Amino acid sequence: MSDHRDSRKSRAVSINLGDTEGRIEEIPAVQEEPQKVRFSCWEQGRLLSQPLELTEKELLNLLKVAIRVGILSPDFIKELSSEFEI
What we know:
By secondary structure, the chain is an alpha+beta fold. It has one domain (about 10-85). About 30% of the residues lie in helices and about 25% in strands. The chain contains 2 helices and 4 strands. It has helices spanning about 55-70, 75-85; strands spanning about 10-15, 20-25, 35-45, 45. The chain has a 4-stranded antiparallel sheet with strand order 1-2-3-4, with helices on one face. The radius of gyration is 14 Å and the shape is globular.
């Protein structure tokens, strides 16, 4: 069975959470599929099966980094700001 995902390397950003890191990464889209992102927890370069647990401040910091590098799109930012009038 072949993988139909784009062969481009996905981009990722992370923040240090002490012993672990929280990460947001792009998932390369299949042709017409909307862009997807993955939130994950890593330790010593290994993906952990546990969920990513963040404080509100840590989540905000991770989102800021993802926005700055373009992982979260201008459309995402526009919709978020219009939803909450920010």
